[in-house]
Amino acid sequence: MSRPIALNPDSRAAALEAMAAGDLDVLVVGGGVVGVGAALDAVTRGLSVGLIEQRDLASGTSSRSSKLVHGGLRYLEMFDFALVKEALEERGLLLTRLAPHLVRPVPFLYPLEHTYERPYVGAGVALYDAMAMAGKYETGVPRHKHVFRKELARLAPDIRTDSLHGAIRYYDAQVDDARLVMTIARTAANNGAHVATRTKVVGFLREGERIVGVEARDLENGVDFTVRARTVINAAGVWTDQIQEMIGGQGALDVDASKGIHLVVPRDRIRSECGFITKTPHSVLFVIPWGRHWIIGTTDTPWDLDLAHPAASRTDIDYLLEQVNALLKVPLDHDDVEGVYAGLRPLLKPLRKAGVEAETTKLSREHTTISPIPGLVLIAGGKLTTYRVMARDAVDLAVAELDDVLPSITDRVPLVGAYGFETRTNQRVALSRDAGIGIGRIDHLLGRFGGLVDEVLTLVDERPELAKPLAHADEYLAVEVVYAVTHEGARHLDDVLARRTRISIETFDRGVKAAREVAELMAPELGWDKGTVDREVDHWLRRVEAERQSQQMATDTEADEARVAAPEIL
User: Fold this and answer.
1) Which of 503, 504, 500 is nearest to 525 (CA)?
2) Which of these, 410, 352, 404, 12, lies nearest to 191 by C-alpha position?
3) Taking CA 516 as the corner, what is the angle to CA 511 and CA 518, rounded to the nearest 5 degrees?
4) Which of the residues 282, 342, 439, 537 has an alpha carbon 20 to 30 A from that of 246?
5) Are 379 and 394 in contact (CB under 8 A)?
6) d(C-alpha 428, C-alpha 341), whole Å
């Protein structure tokens, strides 16, 4: 198999040139999981496709989720069986066919506070498993099991079992959401899509009543250009209203933002072989294994402030600590928190304005696609697990007027890195010996790059110094930073610290100590001089300080004011 196309400065320049030079069948606006999914769906149907994103891939909602690929167990209580079935099928597809190198099973405990809960919860989880097994694809996870108090104490020694009557253990799956998005984008590019980040839509091109493309700006070079396309798909998530304003308010979606925050704590703070899930007064509490860490979430509160940088307040953090401490023998406090991140869910209200006519296709309760005016498709809502379905539905609507367009095939298109993953996993000992890297490190690389580990190890072979761990973020090797720039589209320091790696939330200093080493590794690949390195590091330090200040504030308004004090970098 030939090497996949890399996302790097050269490929970005070529993508911008190609999009400016000729007409596309489909232009996708937005580099989150739905946008990159739509680009992959369209290009694998044989269409000419471009994708532009105003910041980095997954820089919004798609890098700030609970990092779960799941069927939505709680939707069973709402009798939304179709939605659960759809999500479970997508979970199985990702686990077994599309992204086995990125998506992996994770066990959860559902604690039982009362004896009467066991038959009720047990029946629900049994139905959950049965629906997964009845789906079109392999389940990819073990079946559930009833756990009683003694075994619960063994599985999770730090959970308070005195008031519990055991638990139900079941499985879902998890993924590094930002890595999934980048991998989908790279797969789209490998199939011919033109992908350019740091490129902003500033207006739309019209011929009569029809949208025929966009006016765009290369934010890094300050160059304006036009991109002509037969159809534009807007997948901007919580920015959907801003896109609709560009077309004079001719939209039919009302997207509200809901803030969800997560805490990251070291794995040794909670002794448990499984994650756990329970209900809270206002949301669902997840405690999710994440390598050497736990992710604790989430909240669900309205947000109408800065969309680019939602801020977690001290009130948010206190709420999550209070909820998780109700389950723990030894409570957590603020000193245990390594990282905090906040994301926005795009909550959908269709048919925003009375009297606006739009062809609306309500494809599930979780997402909606519309074509408010010819040549433009909007998609909003949904969740990470069902990104492929959302992308397919958006492209179906976008090509409805085109002749001889083939149906979606993305259920049969593995993401880059899936090919060769099992083989390289079986060869892990030989890879370790040949590269002079410990087996644990090889496993780490396989879980991030899959079959593309060969490209990473080739860099190590050419530059042996890249095999060293980062001095202040030793979960990652120096080669991962260089590869992020040369193959994964990283353009700035925060792209690497916050998305290509998770140093920003996996170290107590939020990546402050690692920032300069990472920037200096990036510099030769991006042509940075010392002044640029200094500016990138300074920006990161300002961002971390602004986030820390915001997390001391009691209200969202105060937290937002503190967070936006850190300037954006372009």
Assistant:
1) 500
2) 410
3) 75
4) 342
5) yes
6) 33
Tokens 């590269």 correspond to what residue? 435
- The Cα–Cα gap between 411 and 136 comes to 11
Residue (of 319, 361, 274, 390) closest to 36 by Cα position? 390
Give the tokens for residue 448.
Answer: 């991030």
Q: Count how many residues are written for the chain.
A: 570
Amino acid at site 97: R
DSSP per position, 460-499: HHH-GGGGSEETTEEEEEHHHHHHHHHTB---SHHHIIII
Answer whether the bond into residue 298 is a cis peptide, omega within 30°.
yes
Residue pair 388/379 in contact by the 8 Å Cβ criterion: no
pLDDT tens digit sequence for 457-505: 999 999 999 999 999 999 999 999 999 999 999 999 999 999 999 999 9
The amino acid occupying position 94 is L
Query: Considering only CA atoms, which of 431, 387, 474, 433 is closest in space to residue 181?
Result: 387
- Band the pLDDT of 251: cuts 50, 70, 90: low
CA dihedral 24, 205, 225, 568 (to 10 degrees): -110
| Rounded Cα distance, 425 and 444, in Å | 11
- Here the tokens at position 243 are 């896109």
* DSSP structure class, residue 281: S
Q: What tokens does 501 get?
A: 């790696």
Strand partners, 256: 347
- pTM of the complete model: 0.96
